[in-house]
């Protein structure tokens, strides 16, 4: 009973104390808190000291003050040791008051008491007390007190013994007070056991808490909001319950209501629910966006923080972005950032990060303020804020033009560069991203470089953070456009770093490294690319090409293209490693990869190994398909490779058979892309160079010719290469094609080609000269057109001061222009072109020397004094060329010397320069054309007696005789001519020819089909027949028969017949056997026909031959020679009968006797041929005068006493010497015998 009284007193004291406290708070007077025990003590002290103290009785177990639950306002009871056991026994006792007192003690006691209680195993006892259907609220308060101690072991024990289930059951079915305290327990339970979220949510906790939010009591709403915020923080099921049941609108409407703590928890709940759900984000933006913007400016820190977090989530969707922009939320955010509170800055920057993700979301009016605000954060903010600020700047720099980044008094670039050295990878990434985005402008790149960004960027490349390395690599690739930056990068070891990064793996994430290498490879310093090669970049790149992801293959191919572009060392290294990966992509890769592979091959295909690897028909077919690709660059690359491969005859033949390639090349030639037209023209030119059929096909296509001629007028400096390749194609098309030469000239090609000669471009000059050379070759009309077009002066300039190639082709044009053109020959001499041609003769270029030799060969045919005087300087080098190993040059040099040897003075120079020995050697060992020209040169040189010993000394006769056996007709002709000259008036040389075995070949040559060969053979035979032995050798080989056959040919030229007559006369001279053979072979009749032809210009030669045949030598024949003498006499009689027109009668001896026809008049019966032209009497002593006529000796001697003229022609004679005419004397004797005998008549 006493205990109940004491308890009641304590309760009253507690009530009185609480009332006084409230009153003190209202009046502002502090209230001293005293316990009930203290009051009792005071009362006992106020009594007399003698009175005994009033005893205070407590229960045996514990004493419980009624106000112990409010530790911040009321005194806390302190229990002695062992109180935990007493409390456990009190909870286990069946008395409710004891249980209630124990719960209150635990609730109001110190944390140590509760820890001791837990350690004593009191948790199960307390949970049994809570597990009842309607536990008292004090028990839930006690649970909250235990959970608020934040001890992990306490949490785990309560959760283990079903605290979650108790709280969930009370949330859904407890009294209002119990639901409030259960809601307060939820955040602590969830913090200690994440699985509690799902259990509470499944037990209907979300619905209960949502209902509590609508309570009229603020504390209940606050507890429900806190519980709901913690419940949905990591629970997907709780978040779905709120999202699916459309409770977001309710939560959004509660944002402006209640105390700041409640609103903060509501905002936190919204933030947790919508964090990853765009649909929920849009819903909250619609219903609560404005409330969040207002809450963002509240005083309460928690509310501001959670509002900003929710704003960060809703601005991830367009609806939220629109609300923030419309309500001028950006400026409010900037003000909040300026406040300098880190927790606010981070979420405000997150909102800005969402707003700056798209163009146009950030208003222009706040642009400068935004950037300045971000720069302040970079200067003074925390690491997290700096990271987010850099991310915002990175996004802005991606959206804005880089030229607009001139705000913040130039602090952006230095700040970003300084942040590259921070340890935070996120900050480094953001700074590198900003720098990469603004480095598109030259001015910004210069500032970045001046700020010392190279070293930290290269250091980042060696790190492990992939994204940061990517942005650093991109920045470096943009800075690589500056030479200074490239040098610094290389000095910092960027190449080795990138190659090492790529060597560690071929993941597509390393694409940035390949792209950075690609940009560095574009540097204008060749040694940089050499360093890249030495670092092993080519091996790595080719490995990526052969086995990697498509995007890495593309990046690697682009890097290889930059690396090998114009760099010989890189090209050789790629070929050394092997281009099979490129060819495999070309054959089997995707279209995009094929185009990239072709782009690399286009830089390599000019090298022979690459040509050989790509020259297979599958590769050519693949390249042909790429000619019709959609990308112009791909078509250009394919045309480039085909143009290079077409320089080999085999692949050119394959391409020529693939008609689609030819058609596509013609189409590209008419395309709009200039470089593609250039490569198509080059391909056409190379194909025409090797294939006659290709020349015919292209030449028959008017579109090709028109397109090429039009390309010659390509405007601008960039069109020079196209003009050069068009000229190259035309030159090869016109090669040895007279029809095409005419057609091209008619298209007006002369003027643009001559204009190209005057362009200050090497390729244009060379190809124009080449085209002009083929245009005028053996074409007189084009020769005249080019000469009149003013090309000569420029050609001479190129010949004197141009490149070796330009000199070569200029010499080619000059050689063609000087052919049979005296004016051009004089132009060469007057333009001082001879020294330049002589320098080419002394040069090492065999082709150029060949053209220069041909030019001198043409000049050697001129009789102009100026030309003759100037060309002599070429004799010495021409002689040296004869001894060279180049057959073409030797041929042209021999031709030039042959022409020069037509002049006596130049013959002496040739001999002086020791030109005869190499010419003789050339006759033996040269090519057929060279042997022909060398024989002609020797023939001309042999016209001068002083040169004969040198020819004989070096065994020139045997060389020429061996040349007679050549199957080449022109060679035999020139050999015969040279031998004819050597044997002329030189019996020793003639004998040498016979001894060398030249007679059979010369006689055989008399029956040649070539008129020129026959004529030279006749000359040689005639000159050889000057000695008896030579005559016999010629007769034995049938020379007489062949000569007479030529004499009988109606179509034979008179000049040749004249030489035949001379040869027959030489054969018959002083050789009666030969005379008989000639007569028997039928020479008299054709000789008489020629004699009767009054138009013949060589009647005197014919008369001489007939006289030799008719007269011979009047010798007394020996008896053994009677038969031969009769034959000779009969032959002579036949000749005279033919000459005199008389009949022949034969005596028994068989010797022919002449029966003359009688004539009327004073000398009746005397033939007029036997009468003296002076006395008109029968001659007794006939003699032949120098005019060839026969006279009576006494009469002509008398005539010459007074004059030196001919009695027949009245022409002055060189000599008055006379020779007896033995033949006519014999005839006169026969006539007199016949006159004295039987008389005239048959």
TrEMBL record:
Coiled coil: none annotated. PROSITE patterns: ARM_REPEAT, U_BOX. It comes from the Eukaryota. SUPFAM superfamilies: ARM repeat, RING/U-box. It catalyses: S-ubiquitinyl-[E2 ubiquitin-conjugating enzyme]-L-cysteine + [acceptor protein]-L-lysine = [E2 ubiquitin-conjugating enzyme]-L-cysteine + N(6)-ubiquitinyl-[acceptor protein]-L-lysine. Residues 1165-1238 form the U-box domain. SMART domains: ARM, Ubox. Residues 11-23 have a biased composition (Basic residues). Transmembrane segments: none annotated. One of its GO terms (molecular function) is ubiquitin protein ligase activity. GO terms for biological process: protein ubiquitination. InterPro entries: ARM-like (IPR011989), ARM-type_fold (IPR016024), Armadillo (IPR000225), Ubox_domain (IPR003613), Znf_RING/FYVE/PHD (IPR013083). Residues 1-30 are annotated as: Disordered. It is an enzyme of class 2 (transferase). Its EC number is 2.3.2.27. It holds the Pfam family Arm. Keywords: Ubl conjugation pathway. ARM repeats lie at residues 873-915, 914-956, 955-997, 997-1039, 1038-1082. The keyword Lipoprotein does not apply. PANTHER family: U BOX DOMAIN-CONTAINING, U-BOX DOMAIN-CONTAINING PROTEIN 4. This is RING-type E3 ubiquitin transferase. It comes from Ostreobium quekettii. The lineage of its organism: Eukaryota, Viridiplantae, Chlorophyta, core chlorophytes, Ulvophyceae.
